Each structure stands twice: as C-alpha cells, then as structure tokens.
UniProtKB/TrEMBL annotation, chains A, B:
InterPro entries: ACT-like_dom_sf, ACT_dom, Asp/hSer_DH_NAD-bd, HDH, HDH_cat, HDH_CS, NAD(P)-bd_dom_sf
GO biological process, one term: methionine biosynthetic process
Species lineage: Eukaryota, Metazoa, Porifera, Demospongiae, Heteroscleromorpha
EC category: oxidoreductase
Pfam families assigned to the protein according to its UniProt record, in alphabetical order: ACT, Homoserine_dh, NAD_binding_3
Alphabetical keyword list: Amino-acid biosynthesis, Methionine biosynthesis, NADP, Oxidoreductase, Threonine biosynthesis
Pathway membership, UniProt: Amino-acid biosynthesis; L-threonine biosynthesis; L-threonine from L-aspartate: step 3/5; Amino-acid biosynthesis; L-methionine biosynthesis via de novo pathway; L-homoserine from L-aspartate: step 3/3
Family: Belongs to the homoserine dehydrogenase family.
Entries under NCBIfam families matching the protein: PRK06349.1
CDD domains given in the database record: ACT_HSDH-Hom (cd04881)
Organism: Geodia barretti
GO molecular function, one term: NADP binding
Record's protein name: Homoserine dehydrogenase
EC number: 1.1.1.3
Catalytic activity: L-homoserine + NADP(+) = L-aspartate 4-semialdehyde + NADPH + H(+)
Amino acid sequence: MGLGVVGGGVASALLQDPSTVTARVGIPVNLRRVLVRDRSRPRDIELPPGMLTANAEDILDDPDIDILIEVMGGSDPAAAYFRRALSSGKHVVSANKEVMAKEGADLMALARANHVSLLFEASVGGGIPIVGCLMNELAANDVYSIRTIINGTTNFILTRMAHQRTAFADALSEAQGLGYAEADPTNDVEGIDAAYKLTVLATLAYGCRFSPDDVFRQGISALEPQDFRYAEEFGYAIKSLAIADQNGEQVQLRVYPALVPFDNMLANVNGVYNAVEVHGSLCGQVLFHGMGAGRGPTTSAVLGDLVETARLVRDSAVPGGPRELSQHLGVRPIDALRTRYYIRLIVADQAGVLAQIARALGDEDISIASVLQKDADAETQSAEIVIMTHPALESSVQQALLTIGRLDPVRRVGNMLRIEE
Amino acid sequence: MGLGVVGGGVASALLQDPSTVTARVGIPVNLRRVLVRDRSRPRDIELPPGMLTANAEDILDDPDIDILIEVMGGSDPAAAYFRRALSSGKHVVSANKEVMAKEGADLMALARANHVSLLFEASVGGGIPIVGCLMNELAANDVYSIRTIINGTTNFILTRMAHQRTAFADALSEAQGLGYAEADPTNDVEGIDAAYKLTVLATLAYGCRFSPDDVFRQGISALEPQDFRYAEEFGYAIKSLAIADQNGEQVQLRVYPALVPFDNMLANVNGVYNAVEVHGSLCGQVLFHGMGAGRGPTTSAVLGDLVETARLVRDSAVPGGPRELSQHLGVRPIDALRTRYYIRLIVADQAGVLAQIARALGDEDISIASVLQKDADAETQSAEIVIMTHPALESSVQQALLTIGRLDPVRRVGNMLRIEE
C-alpha cells in the first residue's frame, strides 16, 4: 500500500527502517511522495529522487496513496489537505494538535462519513498513548477529570526554577539553548500549546465539541523563585497543569501554574516529561507518564497510528471509528472554580497590615488556612506575606485581590496561584 | 446487537447502566443471555427471567449473539467456548489471563482466520490500558523491556511489610481479611498470576509465542521484615516485579521480589496499585499506573473492549487484528541474568567469617559493592551480614551461595534478592 507524507521527519524514520512497519502490518508499506516546503534543503536521510515534491496535489490526487501522514503542524493548510484526503477515501494520520483542537470535531465527522480512519495519537503527549486510550480502552468510563502536565517546555522551565531557584528568564534561556523552547516561546509559556492539547483530550473524553477558546489560560512568566520556596515550605510543588473536569452539565477547561502536594505523582513529573491522569467512573485514577515531545516519541505515536491504519487497508476493513461527538455540555467559567488559593503579597513593613488583608478576605467569605510572613527587607521597608486559603470561590478571590491591591500598605499582589490537591 | 456473557459481574454492570455502552456505540447493545454456574444464587442485580442459563449452548448456538463476553476465569472450559464462538463468527471479549497466557497465540490466530475480533484488555492490569497499547498505540516500537508491578495482592502485602514492618504471615492474613487475597493465596504469592500476565504482555510486545512455563518465578513468602529494613538503609524498596527484556535473539521472563531504588517510580507504587513501564525504541520509557484489579477497573477494561467490538459490529467492519505472532525468539535462562545482588546471611558471631564469605564470592568473580554487618544476637551468638554485590552472573551467584551455605560459620542464607536499577 502507498503512503504520502506531509513534513520530513517521519518520512526519514520510515525510510531508515521500513521493516519495522512492514513487520507489524505483514505486507509492504511503501512511501510514495513526501511534501516539503523546500526541496533543496539538506536532510538527515537522502530521499530517492522524485519522491520529494512541493506540490500537495501530487499526494492528494494520487490514487495509489492510501494513507496521508501529516506532521507539518499549523491549522492552515493542514485542514484543507485533510478534507480533500478524507473526502477522496484516504485515511489520515496526523500529529497536529492545532488542527485537531480547532477543527477536529468536523474532521472526525468527515472521516466517519467517508468510512476512513483519522488517527492523531501524536497530537497530544508524544510517546504517551492517551489519545487512543480515550477513544478505545477507557471509552466506557464517564470521565470525572483529566489532569495533565502536557507541555514539556514549561515543565522543564518550572523544574529548573524549583530545583535551582533560577529566575524565569534564565530558565527560559536555558530551555531555548537546549532546543526545548522556540525563539518566540509564547505558545508554550502562555499555555496556548497546552490549551490545544487539552481541547483535543476533552473533546474525546466528553464526546463533546470544545474549542481552544473555551480554555482559561494563565502563563508561567509571572512566577518568581520565592514562589517555589514558599510553596515548598507548605509541602507543594508548582506545576503548569492543564485540567478538564466535569461538574453537572458543564466541563471546566483550564491551564495554569498550580500548587500540587509533593505526595501527588504529578508533583514528581520533572524536566521535559509529561503526565496525564484520568479519573474515570470505572477505572479509578490511571496515570500515564512519559516523554511528551521529541523525535522518537512523536515517531512512536505516528507509526503506531500508521500500523493500525495500514492493518485496515491490508484487510480492506472499515474503521469502527471513534465515538460520535453527541454530547452537549456547557463550559464552566473560571469564576465558578472553587479551590484553595496561594496568595503572595508585597506589603509595607508596618503594623496592622495583616488585619486589613484578613478583613478584605473575610468580606468575600474567604477563610485563611495559614499565613507566612517573611522578614522585612530593610532597604525597601517592605515584607512578603504568603496566604493559603481554605476552599473559596474564584470570583470572590479575584474581588478580594482587587480590594487588597488598593489597600494603602499593600505595594503589590506578587502572585495568586490555585492549589490542586 | 446481541451480547452473551459468561460470568455474572459484568452482566450486572451492563444491566445497571446499559446507556453508557449504547451512548458510546450509537446503537442499542442488548444483553441476551448470561451463563452462570448456579442460577439460584442471589445476585447484586436481578436479571430478567430467562436471561440466566447454565447451558453454554444457549449462548454459543444463538445466532443473534454477536459478541461473547467472558469473565469466568480459568482456561477450561473457557478456551473451548472461545474456539466455538470465534469459529462461528462471534467476536470475543475476555478478562481471562490464564487462557490468554496458555492459549492466546492460537486463539488470536483463530480470530484472525475467522475475521472476528478477540480483545482481552481486562486480562492484565485492570484499569491500566496496557494490552491495547501494546497491540496498537505502541506497536511501532521495538520493546527493550517491560517492567511491571502486576499483582495487587503481593504489592499490598509488600507495602504492609515495608511500612509497618509486619511479618509476611500477618500481612497475608490482613490481605485475606480485606478480600485482596484468596483463602489459598498460592497463585498470587508464588507469582503464578504475575507469570500469566507477563506471558500475555510479552507475547504482544515481542510478537512471539511465549508460555507461562517460560517465566522464572520466585515468590515473596521468604521475605522477612529485616530485608525491608536493610534494603531501606541502602536506598531501596522491595517490590515483586514481573519483567520481560530482550537480549539479542532471546527474551528473559522473570517474576521475583527485587530491590528498586527509591527514586524509581516503581518503588513508589503502593498498596493494591499496579504499574507497567515499557521501554521502547521510539517512545522511550512510558509508565502506566492504576488500579490493577477490582470490579470497577475490570469492568472498565471489559466495557472498553466491548465498545470497540460493538463499533465493528455496528459498521459491519472487519477488525484490523493484532500483529501476527511471527517472531521466533528464544527464552533466556535465568542463569544468564547479569545484575547486582542483595545477599543476607546469618552467621556465627566469630572472627574471620566475612573473609571466608568474600573469598567464596571472589572465587566466582563476584565483587562486593558494600557490606552491612549488624550487631550480634547475644542469645544465639549469631550475626547478620548483608552484602550488595557489583553486577554479577546469576549462575555464579547461585554457585557461590552453595559454597557459602556450606561454610562452617554460616548458619544459613537468609535471602538472596536481585537489584533492578
């Protein structure tokens, strides 16, 4: 059977060792065309002459290509390619979180209507097989929550900040130097990448259409080394989590740096590793831990999907297909979140400050669980107060912080972080 | 479409909330017959009259039953039921590790020949979706190793012994009292259950027929509380691991209690939890952690397979089927294992003992990494010596222990455990 590939890396892996896939499928799986932007760029593996093309039609219109593999990224023109391929009876394997987050529901319906397969394991979690598991192995569960560390770049930066007490900017530079972060790190550090991935997971877990715009996002650039120190004193790590959880007829989707107790497995996911914890009605809590990115893990996911798809082609089989997205759940606004909070304030070093702050919190029905007041800085005559609250409503905390920010002795609100027990 | 169930528990779950499966599949999935040993036994859920039967033919010969679900356990008569069902075009979903370990390869071939599906996620790992992942999502990897904690009963007992310093017999009684261990605990504590599960995983991971007899087994009943104390002093937990790893053209399969460094995630899998760590050529190390047994997790796995199978029936689809078991790998004998060892000896409290022991080890090319000699027991005039070796060959260690056991001042070999870094 024939393959067309959009993007170079996986093509190289396929050519380097085609026997792996062929052995799994049982019949030869041949790479026919590879679409690249620049045909003259040097590549790891020399592709046979005539295999490279800069013209998508050479793949989309080739009737001998049964499966389109897409690893180029971005929603445009990938979505258009997918539509043409699926409509003309080609199966699609994709590594593209953006297109699946933005147009996945429609594309899955199109695949279904055309009796072809659309698999996208590599779009989320790299070597962690969470996409397939939500579609199949865990499909009988009502999913209470999915809590994830799903962006390796931010997890690398946060691990550095936690273990070396590095400032954010320095940890980011280091990540860029190692190739973990891009020159423009916005997508990673502002949680955009994580929001795409969370959208894909939530769509599958809840059988419902969600959009990246449904995700509340808070980035990690405002974190300071002392946040890690204080969190540690209270027994918590700081991790950027992407969370989906159901509450009645609503699902809440959120990406933010949160305090996680050290005895929780998510607190011990370090460096570029990812983790996904699914809490289901039947399976209980299942945790997946592995490499979330990189060439090997991505190739593992793409080729796993390819093997599955190629077996369908081999047997002239029709895919059973994923669940129909027939659920209609609302999106719960972040204001409705109820959790515990970590609040760090920089205040003037004078008497009575804490009383004023406590009153502002009390007025919003927020009760304090513990307080840490650090020695004053003689030079600036300021001190830091760290407050851990009991469970409180997000909207109340936001309101209280506005009030607190306006208090005379409060220099600024250093940080507000949510606690995920 | 129609279902026949062998065994009661899952049937109850299906009847209690049939909407879950129907919602995932999109068309009604109806339970038609349930085979039970004793029709008069009281059940959690009252089954409609006429649904219960004690005659397997009522299911196997019913042309309206598309899918056979088997949760009875044991290889006989399950294997015979499977053969009849698969041969007559029925799909099979099984939770049966024993039949899959002993006859899985033949049954998979039979399913393949009859273009029907045979899924068995619930046979290993309960709520951990490792079976499907090895068949599909991770299928493109060459698997270097699978290291697992795959028997919840032994992990519960070992966790108790580690944390409460309980004796084995007491921890076992407690497990029996809680329903985690059976009256005859042999299958669990001697590693038979783990060997079945490891056989199933290795067969899928290596695409090769293996038998439970290929698994080297050592149970946990000889462990004593001081083994946990000494291991801890060296920085290790003791866990019963089931391991498959490839070495050239051979795979070694082994189940035994081993020392695992505390900073390894497997060391922190406690109580009745299970974990599976797959080290693949592309995905790197992926770890799965979850509930390995119990009604919820088993139901999750069985219904997940059912949803996948029912989608095939819905679409009149032919399953792509798992990989053909076309590999021919040998089984590496335990004698060829090379690892580090923990050796606890009870010796007479007299001078020169350690020198004699060290000589016996040195004669077999075993070098000592560290030694712990504990204060003598005045009453018995004996002392305990704990030795951690550098990497050594199993056959040499066994030979050295024979020699050491015969030394005059050595009262007995307390324990020998392997170290898994």
